[in-house]
Each structure stands twice: as C-alpha cells, then as structure tokens.
C-alpha cells in the first residue's frame, strides 16, 4: 500500500501535435505497490501519456519525476534505464528471435570476452516464466505466439529489467476471459512486489477488479483522480463523457422510406459475429462503440474491401457478392473510409483526379479521359461542398484536413449513392467544417440516401443519428432509438455495463 | 497455477531448420562436385580447386558484408563498384610506392570501402530513403568516379610489386592467404553476429524495426555501422581482387553486386531481415563459384550459368517460404496454455 511518497509523478505535462493539443496540463501520481487506472474516451490523450512515459514523445512542457527527481526521457532507452516498462496494446516483439532473447535484448547476461551467455539467458527466461506461472518455451521464436502469450513475454521483459513502473496500454483488448484472469494474477503479483502499475482499459469491471486508484481524462485534460472505493462506475462514466452538447446538429426529420441496406448474420471470426441490421432510405444510422469493437471492419466487409465468413448484404433488394467493392459501387454503395490519407485519397494526385476517380470509366469517352469533362465534374462537386482550394490541379496533399475530407465526400457523392457509409466522417477536422459535413449528411438523408455512420464521437452520434447501433467486442449489443440514446446509455452499452440511467 | 519444470536448454526447431538449410547447400555442393568429377576427373585437380577457393574467397568476403546489411532489412548494391574503386586505389598506390607492406594495403582498401559505407549508411539513415535506391545511386556514382579517375588506363601485373602479387598466390600449408583472410573475416563476423549484443541488435532491427526503436536500440547508428562493415569488406575484397588478378581497370567488379546478393539469398539470409547467418552466405558464395567452374568443366554453355543461378535463387526462396509456413504452423500449435 502506498506510503506517502509517489514513485512517479507526472507534473503538468502538455503535448501538442501540430495545432492539436493532445494533452494539456495533466498531473497525477503513481505509488509503489498500487495499481492505477487511466481511463477516458478515445482520443482523450491516454496513449500520448503512455508514449511520454515510454520516452517516445517528449512533453512540450511539464516534467516527469521519479522519486521526486525530474527525469528527462529523450528516448525509449532512457525510459528503460529509469525503470519504466511499457507494455503496448500491440506487443512489440522480434518474431525471428527466441523468446529468451526477446526478454533479454539489451541486457543479455555476458560471459567470457563479453559474449552472450546463452545458457544463462535461457535459464533467466525460464525462471521468469516460473515466477509468472506460465509455460512458454524460452527457446522458441516469438513468431506464432498468441497475443496473450506475447503480452506475458512483455511482462517477463519488464520483470527482467527490474522495472519499478509498469505501464500497460489496454493489454486486455485482445484477450479472452481466462487470459485476462491470468494476466491480472501476474499484474497483482507485480504490484505486491512493490511496482507501480498503470493500467489503461475501457472496461470498468477490469478497472475495479485490479486497481486502487483511477485517473480520468477527457479531451486531453485531467478530470479527476480518485480512490476506486470513493467513486462509482456511474460517476466514472459521467466524468468521462460529461461535456456540453454545445454544437448544433442539424438533423432534419425525415420519414424513413424502404429498406436500402439490409445486413444479415454478418460474421468474420474473430473480428465480428452475427451482425444484422437494416438502414432505410432517408435514415441516418450510427454505428457506435469503442475503437477495436469491430465497427470499421463491419462496414468494410459490407463494401467488400474486407472478406467475411458468412452472412448476406442486400442493397435495395440486390444481394452483394462478398469481396467485390466494384459490385458494391455498381449497386449504389459508397464508402468514405476512416483514414483518408491511407484509404480515401491519393495524396500525390490532383484534386480533380481524386474527385473523379471512382467514375473514371463513365466519364471517359472511347476509353480516354478528357481533362475538360473531368474538370467540369470536379468543379461542380467541390463547389457544392464549398471546398477551399487554389487550383483543381493542386495536389490533394496540400489541402487542410477538413478540405481533404470534403474531397473524399465529393468523390463518393458524385457517384450518386443510394447507401452512403461514412467511417469517422469528422475525425481531425475543425468545428466549422464539421458542422458543414453534418449539414451535408443531413440533406443527403433528406434526399433519400441511406446513411450508415461509424463514429467515436458521442455528440456526433447523438446529434445526427435516427438510430444508434452499439457494438462491443464484435457483437451488436444494443439498438437505441433517437429518444433512448444518451451519452450514458451508449457508453454503458459500449463498455458492457448495465444501463442504470 | 502450477510451476513448470525448467526445460533443459536445447536447440529450438528454428535452429534445426537453419542447420538443415545450410545442410541443403552442402548436399547440393557435394552432388555438383560428384557429377562434375565423374564426367571429368580433372575437376578435382589442385589447380581447379585452388581457382574455386580463390574465387570464393573474394565473393565470400563480399557476401559476409552483404549478409550483415541484409540482416538489418537493408541491401547494399554498391559493393561491386566499391570493390572496383578500392582495387584501383590500391593498384595506383602500389604503382607509386611499391614498398608498402601488404597489411597497409589491406587497411587502405578497407578504409576506402568504409568511407563509401559511411555515405551509404548516412543517406539511408538521415535521408530516410530505402537502401535499395540509395545504393543503386552510389553504385553508379562510385563506378563513375573510378572511370573518371582511371580515364581508360589499366594497371597491369608487371606494374605491381611482386610481394603483393605473391600475397595473391602464396599459400600456408597449401591454403592460399586470400582464403585464410576470408575465413578470418567470416569467423569474426559470425561470432560478433551470434554472440555479441551488437550483433543481436542487428537481427532485432531486421526482425521488427518498430520494436527495435521501442526497445531503445540505437537503430540509426547500427544501420550506419552495418553499411560501414559492408563497405569495408567490399574494399577489402577489392585488395584481394587486385592481388589475385594483378590486372585492374575501371570496370573491375562490375556486376558483382548481383552475384553477392544471389549468394546471400541462396545461403538462407532472409531478404526481409532478421534471420540467416554469414556461414550460410559464405556457403552460398562457394556454391555459386563452384557452379561457374563446373559448367566450364562440363563444357556447358556459359550462358546457362545465369539461368541456373536464377533458378537456384527461386528454389532457395521457395524452400525458405515453405519451411517458414510449416514452422509457423508448428509454432502456433506449440503455443502455451493457461496452467
């Protein structure tokens, strides 16, 4: 149990990436022998905190103190030397090297002439696994280990480094129940040996099961730090989401028409399971849930970019072949992907080329694309979306994020879709553009387009959607009407808590 | 939870596979030598073996350097040109001061190569450009510098001091100096890669660059280091080349880079980094050199040689892929369980 002095203190740290302030003036303390939870919505700044502790990012201002002495973490090696071990959501092992070598990397026991003493190295790894109570062959390569085992290897790494501060960034996201139990047993023994544990998770039952103290972050700021005995799950959820629904969401009331998109029993092991829903013409349906709950994978599978194991997708009564985006497009489906830089745009090509890309066939004459037609069509659509640009021939990469998003929208709206799927339509764009995108989606719905929107932003979900579908761990767990959907009810469903509102 | 018994340190399946991998090359060599000897017994004469060993020595030194770079998930295409520059440099140096001891000449050659290696490494590290592109560029630049400097001239054996040429031909206990030098390079590099932290970090970088950075490995410094080793060894190979052939012009070593990469790949060094050994690379060099010489003995058209080497590369990659798939399947099954 904590004696008065914190082992590690984060003091008023701030970090910005470009114009975006990821973390602002956050302070908290970690005590030896205590597990400390860090919770917050997606984008609250948790990962940035982790990366600062890991030495990957350096704080713009503020300090990190170990035993009351400010330390400068200029790189991962510094963090390691300071006794801070970070276990990432995606383990970072060397697949070609043996498990023992992965654990010992940089600290291999040395024998004569400073050569690595392999026998001792394997012995050390084996002893660590005994201590952790797991059976992993230290001689096998890390390649092929399950995520759970990889995480145990990461913990063994932390143990072998005598880490005093162990940071675990959503370690349970990909684990089964039994594996979580095993991980927690290991984490508790670490804590009981005097290490300061920082545990990041979206799952409140895990936070309450493991941790003594909880820090809540929202929008890059510190909200509160409490003992878990002093705070209820309800309060935590409210503190996580509790912001004003300030922005106006101009959703027009539309009487839904016929079913435009019908999804039945869509499954892809282990990402999503038995997902069924309908979207009617004129309706905006939001697909909510935490990052990693399978939302993006579902819509990509509908569009045919990702494969699926089973299930059917019908668009206006026509069944879509799996794995054929071309057919989906022909049937009138458009997908505005989550990551516009990687998936939505060709950054080196001109604006006009990007806008007309999905229609390059219909716009061409005798197989040739003529600049004039392309330009006319691009001008029309970019004007409709009020896109700001210098010349249509400029590279898309030179535009601001919001305008890039408009180009992606223009590109797909120009195909005259019956079903529009948007994945995080307003991520990383400014408030003004956000409102424009929302207005646009609303007017499209009014024109009879069926809109399926994946979004992590609760205000957007609540403001725009006629219905909210909530996914958790690959399953559709709740369907809330516009009147039933509140920040609390959506968050409860997404995190697996009983709705008690 | 129950404790597990400490398993006795033993070879992992990967080790066995890699051993088998090198065994495969040895078997291929044995078959090749046997077939060729049956067809023409003179293939096993002293002179023929000597030629093969000398050729292998030069290629193996290059292959060892290349393996170091490839293990870090990079590639060095400039080695043939560096060899040429180094050979021409030491040739010119010896023309002007014939009394230089061989050891100094070796050091000069390696230094010339190391400088080229620094340039390659720095461009890859700071320019953030793929090594393939950088070294393709330096391949031409270095060759161009050599042509400009040589200006069409050629250094002939009679212009080189006899002491240096002796070094290229003399033997100790029947083994040529060049071969001994190549073995020394091989052993030292092999031990560093296997038994020293720095060596293991090179494997780690190639296996997962992202994880290597997070593990605090000085990735940039090690990348430059790997290119310096490759460059220095290419420079050293240039001295061996000069000593063996005695005749050096600006085109020396043209096209060697592809032989070297072939030797490394055939020797089982994964082109995506992280696995393989310099022993394998050296065996690959021996196999390729032996093929060239046995085709001559068997009076098979030399043009076939390239096709055979190409086929061998495809075979090697295919075999590696097959083994990798099987090993991966096996490893998944061997995953641990909750106890």
Describe the structure.
Chain A is of the alpha/beta class. Chain A has three domains: 8-93 and 145-241, P-loop containing nucleotide triphosphate hydrolases (Rossmann fold, 3-Layer(aba) Sandwich), CATH 3.40.50; 252-332 and 417-501, P-loop containing nucleotide triphosphate hydrolases (Rossmann fold), CATH 3.40.50; 347-416, no CATH class. Chain A is 34% helix and 25% strand. In chain A, a hairpin with a 3-residue loop joins strand 11 and strand 12 (272-280). The longest helix of chain A is centred in the middle third of the chain and has 16 residues, at 177-192. The two termini of chain A are 34 Å apart. The mean pLDDT of chain A is 84. In chain B, strands 1-4 form a two-stranded antiparallel sheet. A two-stranded antiparallel ribbon of chain B has the order 2-3. Chain B is an all-alpha fold. Chain B has one domain (43-325): ABC transporter involved in vitamin B12 uptake, BtuC, CATH 1.10.3470. Chain B is globular and about 65 Å long. The chains are: A alpha/beta (501), B mainly alpha (339). Chains A and B meet through helix 2, helix 4 and helix 6 of A and helix 8, helix 9 and helix 13 of B. Chain B: It is a multi-pass membrane protein.
The main β sheet of chain A shows up as: 6 strands, mixed
Strands of the widest sheet of chain B, in order across it, are: 1-4
Number of discrete domains of chain B: 1
Unreliable residue stretches of chain B = 1-11
How far is the first residue's CA from the last residue's CA of chain A?
A: 34 Å
What's the helical proportion of residues of chain B?
over 70%
* CATH topological fold name of the largest domain in chain A: Rossmann fold
Numbering strands along the chain, what is their spatial order in the largest sheet of chain A?
Answer: 6-7-8-3-9-10
Major β-sheet of chain B, in short? 2 strands, antiparallel
Describe the global form of chain A.
Answer: globular
Largest interface, chains and sizes: A-B, 54 and 46 residues
Mean pLDDT level of chain B:
87
- The total beta strand count of chain B reads 4
Number of distinct beta strands of chain A: 20
Protein name (chain B): Autoinducer 2 import system permease protein LsrC
Membrane topology (chain B): Multi-pass membrane protein
Organism (chain B): Kribbella capetownensis
Pfam families (chain B): BPD_transp_2 (PF02653)
